[in-house]
Amino acid sequence: MGKMTIQQMVIQLAGGMGTSIQIFMVTLVFSLPLGLIVAFGRMSKNRFLQSVVKVYISIMRGTPLMLQLMVVYFGPYYLFGLKLGNGYRIWAAMIGFVINYAAYFAEIYRSGIQSMPAGQYEAAKILGYSRFQTFFKIILPQVIKRILPSVTNEVITLVKDTSLAFTLSVAEMFSMAKSLASSQTSMMPFVAAGLFYYIFNLIVAVAMEWLEKKLDYYR
After folding, report:
1. CA-to-CA distance for 214 and 217, rounded, in angstroms?
2. How many of the other CB atoms lie within 10 Å of CB of 180?
């Protein structure tokens, strides 16, 4: 392969960035609500459910994400003999990211929910709110405000973690940069990829800061 221009490199990296953004968006859309469900299980009075969820969170937080991605991808074949083909790579990456980040978000939700004063629940009960109404109309909006800085940190980490999809040979941006750097014998693809990640993270940080300001009325 001949030498590529900077513009050609950027165009190829942009294609990989599209895959990275896809993994990022799918992970956020599914892991945030799943994390809330997991948090409920973690706080459940049912000891068995609570224990199962605690083990799940412990495994997700205690083992490398790269290893989890490989288990999700190779697991169906080695456990059930299923051959899912190359198309499963991107799905395996998304599933792996969702179940990993749901565990982290669950602990963030739990800390936020448990930090709420008992008086909030008592006042809502006096006003005639059901437990469902109390949580979703009174508690959750305040919890979101409290946990937003922690969620922001995880979201920024997620942007960088999307590069781990290269483990499954998913053609995201880091994979593209590594391939281009090898074929072009140049560090420029890595520099360009670094700028892409930085700009992506900057956009995420600005968006989360805007959201924090919008929620200031919960103070």
Report:
1. 7
2. 22
Would the CA dihedral through 112, 116, 120, 122 be positive or negative? positive
Mean pLDDT of 44-54: 94
Q: Which residues of 127-137 are buried (b: 16+ CB within 10 A; e: fewer)?
A: eebeeeebbee
**The model's pTM:** 0.86
Please say if the pLDDT value at position 1 is more than 60. no
Q: Which two tokens stand for residue 69?
A: 């991605």
Under a CB-based contact definition with an 8 Å cutoff, are residues 167 and 126 in contact?
no
- Give the long-range contacts of residues 21-25, CB within 8 A, separation 24 or more: 21/200, 22/90, 23/90, 23/93, 23/94, 23/97, 23/162, 23/165, 23/170, 23/172, 24/158, 24/159, 24/162
Q: Per-residue pLDDT for 216 more than 80?
A: no
| Vertex 94 angle, CA 203 and 113, to 5° | 70
Closest CA to 49 of 59, 61, 37, 60: 37
Give the mean pLDDT of the chain.
Answer: 86
